[in-house]
Specification:
mainly alpha; two-stranded antiparallel sheet; about 5% strand
Length: about 200
C-alpha cells in the first residue's frame, strides 16, 4: 500500500494520466484528513477551485490542493513529534497517567479527524495549516469558552457523530468537533444545554 509521500509524487508527476493523479490525491486523504475524508476533500476542492466531482481537473489545481494538504500535514507531524517528546519526558519524570489532551490525541494519531467535520459541506474556510496551528495553540494553553479555530461562541453538543468520540461540542459556525480538552467545564456544560434547547 502506497504511503502519503509516494501518492503525493504521483499527483505531481506529469507522466501520470490525470485520472491517476486525481485518484492519488484522494488516496492521500486516507493517510491524512484533518476534517475527515469527505469534508477535507470538499475543502481542498473549494480552495483549489474545482468541483469535487470533476474528473478532468486542471493538474495545476490538483497540485495546489496537494500543496495545502502537505503544508498542513507538516504542521501536524511537527506537533506529533513534540507531543511524543513531551510524553517521554513526563514518563521519565514519573508522570505515567496521561491527561485529557493525551486521551484526545490518542484518538487522532496520524492526523485523521483532528478537526472533525461531520457535515462534509461545513468546514473552516481558512487554509488547513492555519486551522491546525490554531487548534494546536489551543491544546497548549488553558481551556477557553469558544471554538479555537474560528472563535465562534455557539457550541452545540451533538450525538451520533461519524467519528470517535461519537458525541461532543460542535461549532455551529465552522462545523468542527471541538476537542473537549480545549474547553472549560462551563463551556462544555453550556454546549450540552444548547443541544437540549435545539432538540426541544
Amino acid at each position: 500500500m502506497a504511503g502519503f509521500r509516494s501518492l503525493a509524487r504521483q499527483v505531481r508527476d506529469p507522466r501520470c494520466d490525470l485520472a491517476l493523479r486525481r485518484y492519488s490525491l484522494r488516496k492521500c486523504l486516507e493517510r491524512f484528513a484533518p476534517y475527515g475524508h469527505r469534508a477535507t476533500w470538499d475543502h481542498l476542492c473549494s480552495r483549489a477551485g474545482f468541483d469535487p466531482e470533476d474528473r478532468s481537473v486542471d493538474p495545476a489545481r490538483l497540485v495546489a490542493a496537494l500543496d495545502e494538504l502537505e503544508e498542513a500535514r507538516a504542521v501536524w507531524l511537527a506537533y506529533e513529534v513534540e507531543f511524543a517528546e513531551r510524553r517521554r519526558k513526563e514518563k521519565h519524570d514519573g508522570l505515567r497517567r496521561p491527561g485529557s489532551v493525551d486521551d484526545w490525541h490518542r484518538m487522532t494519531w496520524g492526523g485523521f479527524g483532528v478537526a472533525w467535520c461531520d457535515d462534509p459541506k461545513v468546514h473552516p474556510r481558512e487554509p488547513l495549516a492555519e486551522v491546525l496551528r490554531r487548534l494546536i495553540a489551543a491544546l497548549e494553553r488553558e481551556p477557553g469558552a469558544c471554538c479555537p479555530v474560528c472563535g465562534g461562541e455557539r457550541l452545540v453538543w451533538r450525538h451520533d457523530l461519524d467519528h470517535e468520540p461519537s458525541s461532543g461540542p460542535v461549532c455551529t459556525e465552522c462545523g468542527i468537533l471541538v476537542p473537549r480538552p480545549v474547553l472549560t467545564p462551563a463551556a462544555l456544560a453550556e454546549s450540552r444545554r444548547a443541544r437540549l434547547l435545539v432538540s426541544a
